[in-house]
Write a structure and sequence with these properties.
With about 140 residues, this protein is an alpha/beta fold. The chain has 4 helices and 4 strands, in the order βαβααββα.
Length: about 140
């Protein structure tokens, strides 16, 4: 499955979710991230919080959410509030309303990261189960 994590700036929550998902999915599913108004760079404390888990996001360049990315995605996970998160028409949407780590001290960014990690673990498990059911041979005669 292809999972697209979306937020506004693509510099915090969606980046953490994308990198955590890639690590936890181990290549079984793909992930990308994008935002409606991409920032200039990933927030420094987001990079530090990911680095603490051995994940490097220093190469991430915030990108704009495009129709092409939506076509690629099977699932879009919004990581911000409904009021500000971009719309993802035509894609199964999962809403994870989380605080924006922009300007937060590292300790608070860690809490957002850890919340995201727990949600990503659940999403990967759900997608693995869906794949297992889909790939299971039919027992009908």
């Amino acid at each position: 499955m292809n999972v697209l994590f979306v937020c506004v700036a693509n510099a915090g929550r969606s980046v953490m979710a994308e990198r955590l998902f890639r690590s936890l999915a181990g290549g079984r599913h793909e992930a990308r991230s994008a935002g409606s108004e991409p920032g200039a760079a990933v927030h420094p404390h987001v990079l530090a919080a990911l680095e603490e888990l051995g994940l490097d996001a220093s190469d991430h360049v915030p990108r704009r959410l495009t129709p092409r990315l939506l076509e690629w995605a099977d699932v879009a996970v919004s990581t911000c509030s409904e009021e500000v998160c971009p719309l993802t028409p035509g894609v199964t949407r999962v809403a994870w309303e989380l605080p924006d780590p922009k300007g937060m001290p590292l300790a608070e960014v860690r809490a957002v990261r850890d919340e995201l990690r727990g949600r990503v673990v659940g999403l990967v498990a759900q997608l693995d189960e869906e794949r297992s059911v889909r790939d299971r041979p039919s027992t009908a005669d």
